[in-house]
Amino acid sequence: MVDLPSPADRPDEPRVGTDEWVASHGERTARRTGVTGFIARVWDRLPPFGRLAVFVVPTAFLPFLMSEENLTRYALYTLFYALMGLGLNVVVGYAGLLDLGYIAFVGFGAYGYGILASPQFGNHFQAELAIPAVAIATAVLGLLVGLPSRRLVGDYLAIVTLFFGQAFVVFVNNANRIDFPHFGHVDLTGGANGLSDIYPPNFFGYEINSTRRYFYFVLAAFALVLTALYFANESRTGRAWRALREDPLAAETMTVPVNRLKLLAFAFGAGLAGFTGAIYGSFQTGAFPGDYDVGLLITIYAVVILGGTGSLAGVALGAIIINCAPELLRSEHNASLLFYGVILLTILGKVRPWRVLGVFLGGLVAFGFAVHAIADAAWPRLTAAHAHSTGFLKGPIEDWVLLPRHPVKIADYGYVILIAAILLVTRLDGWRRLVALVPTVYLGAFVWENLLITQTAGATRLILLGALLVALMNARPQGLLGTARVEIV
Amino acid sequence: MSAPARLLDLRGVGKSFGGLRVISNLDMHVDEAEIVSVIGPNGAGKTTLFNLVTGIFRPDEGDIVLDGRSIVGLEPHQITNRGVARTFQTLRLFLNMTVKENVMAAQYGRTRSTVVEAMLRLPRARREEREIARLAEEKLAFFGSRLMGYRWDQPAYSLSYANRRRLEIARAMATTPRILLLDEPAAGMNPAETHEITELIGKLRSEAGHTILVIEHDMHVVEGISDRVVALDHGEKIAEGTFDEVATNERVVEAYLGPRHTRKK
After folding, report:
1. Residues of chain B neighbouring A235 (CB-CB closer than 8 A)
2. How many CA atoms lie within 13 A of A174 on its CB side?
3. Which end of chain B is more exposed for a tag (fewer CB within 10 A), N or C?
4. How far apart are CA A451 and CA A447, in angstroms?
């Protein structure tokens, strides 16, 4: 792992790529201190199987700690997202192809498995046959889609694959009345109603029919795919993929058949998508056209990009955050913790030196109590309501934040003023910014307690998620476990 | 004395971009174990010549023959597999891969195991992987201590400029070429590094046994390494011979300095 290119607000550090920067590179990587540095060093020293165990071993105990419903919501969907992300990571992360039709391959896998094991055609193949067959068929489909697009690079490939993805959705929506010359009408996909009652996978007679069994099955599949991809990445093929992502012309002149390898990456990713789709379809006991549309595509891209394109562990971490964060934020208490936690951490991380930080925090607390005391004395209605937050947050908030009895209108005004205040703060510098930040943070808490917290199931959740992603993007533009990419001529 | 074997032979090669004739009717050859320099002012067509030989461009006319077989029309990776490797004037390393991986990636065409074999860790994949690593280390060791040890696992972008040039040569060597095409290996180097490159090119022939075709602007380097020098101007060969013959050739002086300097004589 490598340090970030020096951010613009630290002009004293040499720019990436200059001679001083090159000379100090080794020293800089050795210098990683603090908790993150320690974790990074331990992580670097772990053997590959150790890294895998870090994810898999704790995860294996989850069924004993969670209800079945939570196991599905948190663990199983995370694993599915991670599996889908691993396939996309081959295409996007290793080979650098912008494939926007990826989810159609997942959908093809789900429908394919449904056709082989559901009442639709009365088939019930064993999973040990059906799942590999579906994966291979999807890889072949990927090959067929990739063949005409192999000359297309960059943006054009994105358009063509996006078109394919949309065409797939339209096709499965309408493939319930195909006319064949001799067979007559064939209902292939169930049309808008989809395929339902897909049978659970049955391995040599052992049926995966409970949530817990599904969980261990998908966890095993995840560990298997992760291991295989690790070896693939370290092989001649993996190196060739990464080389052509870096510089296709140089790769071509260094004996790498670029077109063939792009096609291979495309088909390989599609095969993995089909494999995941088959399991996903059987878990959902159905395949429906709307499931495999752009929404899921964006989610999986978010998993890969957030985790760090090209990093296997990053995909796992990205899946955990993308799946669990929105679920956790449904609760008002969790949302509050995140809201106040992020603000506090940002202040702790950004305000320097320590003396200024102490004065700032003291000023913030005093400001709140002062406003609260004045309001309490002058207009008691402004502090009459109770806090939404529960637990340890409830007491301090009721003494600190203004909670009017009829908050709707005043909170709306506060929201508008808050946005203006945030814009103002970003325009100020130095001590002026810090002074302006005190009432802004207080106003933020006011708007949060009176307006946003009442809508945690809806808009607020998305606002918070967006803010979280923006914060992570600023902290690590290359993704959480990604490596900073450097391009210098 | 029997004539030495012709390794690379260009016969009447021509190339135009639109109406611009970049190379016209070029005949030249490189013999086995020879070091040939190509010189000429900017825009003379030297890099285009390399792009034609390595298959990045296809000649409009003429034939390019490597060891008796025409290589016109082959894909660049096939030509490299036949034994023509090159470096680039503007460095084109795989910057975000490690130093060792750069050299390992260039051995793709030399090896055969599939991605499925690699995922299952089958014997052939493991054996080839060991061979790839060993050859990469051997090629990097050719450059003394500069690309050794802890540098193996550092990303290529962390290397200094001169070391990047060395790594590009190591990467080209890893394709086990019969002829090495070096495009301005001394460009951007200081005098000490330039001197070192001159010795290195000599070693590439004497120790590694490569035949070398080199584009170079630095006349000290050209003088120090060349068996034969070919001078190009406006895509045409204007002189060929030993360094002294070419350096005193009237047309070469004219091409570099303009006609005024030749008239004085």
Report:
1. 113, 115, 118-119, 125, 129
2. 7
3. N
4. 5
Among A13-22, A82-91, B6-15, B252-261, the range scoring the smallest mean pLDDT is A13-22
- Is the Cβ–Cβ distance between A190 and A111 less than 8 Å? no
The CB-side HSE value for A68 (13 A sphere, CA atoms) comes to 6
Asked if the Cβ–Cβ distance from B128 to A236 is below 8 Å, we say yes
Taking contacts as CB-CB distances below 8 angstroms, the residues of chain B near A232 are 115, 118-119
pLDDT of residue A31: 60
**DSSP helix/strand/coil, B224:** helix
All residues of chain A having their beta carbon less than 8 Å from the beta carbon of residue B165 are none
Chain B residue with minimum CA distance to A227: B119
3-state secondary structure of B258: coil
Residue A12 reports pLDDT greater than 60: no
Please report the pLDDT score of residue A9 as a whole number.
Answer: 46
Residues 6+ apart with CB under 8 A from B12: B25, B26, B27, B61, B62, B63
Instruction: Give A160-178 pLDDT, tens digit per residue.
Output: 899 999 999 999 999 888 8
| A366 token code pair | 């005093």
3-state secondary structure at position B197: helix
Residues of A within 8 A of B180 (CB-CB) are none
Cis? peptide before A439, omega within 30° of 0: no
Closest-CA residue of chain A to B86: A253
Q: Tell me which residue in B54, B96, B105 faces A483 most closely, judged by beta carbons.
A: B96
Contact A242 B111 (CB under 8 A): no
Contact A232 B115 (CB under 8 A): yes
Q: Which residues pair with B155 in a beta bridge?
A: B98
pTM to 2 decimals? 0.86
The pair of structure tokens assigned to B37 is: 């320099």
Interface predicted TM-score of the whole assembly (ipTM), two decimals: 0.93
